[in-house]
Design goal:
Elements lengths: L9 H19 L5 E4 L2 E4 L7 H18 L4 H12 L15 H21 L6 H14 L4 H13 L3 H19 L5 H10 L3
Antiparallel strand pairs: 1-2
């Protein structure tokens, strides 16, 4: 209430909140879709499918399966889980500060899945698949710096130094634009090693 109505007193803010909540429920045409419990507002999990929640639950299930079995079936399950990640939580631009930790946690899990898939297909004849996978992952989340790092290494190991350097510049642009930061020292070191002396 403080965020939406900072200039009004507590009772008026509360009244505004309840009116807005009723309007939202009316627009959604289902009274139980928005839940207020213990001072927190959320979507009813029984009525709403939220890709971020399903992705996170699927990652947790995969982690449990991987820890309890020695088979590679979790790699196939991970491929399905990867498809659930539709990009950064609430998008790339202007993520509210309260959502940033959740967005970062989802991104880290996504990156970890992608890197595990690349490790699973890290034989010479499957490097092309790993390169394709990483390129697609960067399209989905252009701020995942670890994805760029792995792809730069793969391109360089295949003698594609110009492509690796070009990818570095792309990562730099994306990080400056969407994350307001420069590439890490590790990424910069990778690229320095590629440049002729």
């Amino acid at each position: 209430m403080d965020v939406f109505w900072p200039d009004v007193d507590g009772d008026t803010a509360k009244e505004n909140f309840h009116k807005s909540l009723q309007r939202l429920r009316h627009l959604l045409r289902h009274e139980q879709v928005i839940v207020v419990k213990a001072g927190k507002v959320s979507l009813n999990r029984d009525l709403c499918w939220v890709d971020a929640r399903v992705f996170e639950a699927s990652v947790k299930q995969g982690e449990v399966r991987a820890a309890t079995t020695r088979s590679n079936t979790h790699v196939q399950d991970d491929s399905r889980t990867v498809l659930l990640y539709a990009g950064p939580f609430l998008g790339l631009a202007d993520c509210p500060s309260w959502a940033a930790p959740y967005r970062d946690r989802l991104r880290d899990r996504y990156i970890n899945l992608i890197l595990c898939q690349c490790d699973a297909s890290n034989t010479k004849h499957k490097e092309a698949d790993a390169i394709r996978c990483l390129k697609h992952a960067i399209e989905v989340d252009p701020v995942g710096e670890a994805l760029y790092q792995r792809l730069i290494l793969l391109l360089a190991s295949n003698g594609r130094h110009a492509d690796a350097i070009s990818l570095y510049h792309r990562s730099k642009s994306a990080l400056v634009r969407w994350a307001d930061r420069q590439p890490s020292s590790e990424t910069q070191r990778l690229v320095r090693q590629l440049q002729p002396r």
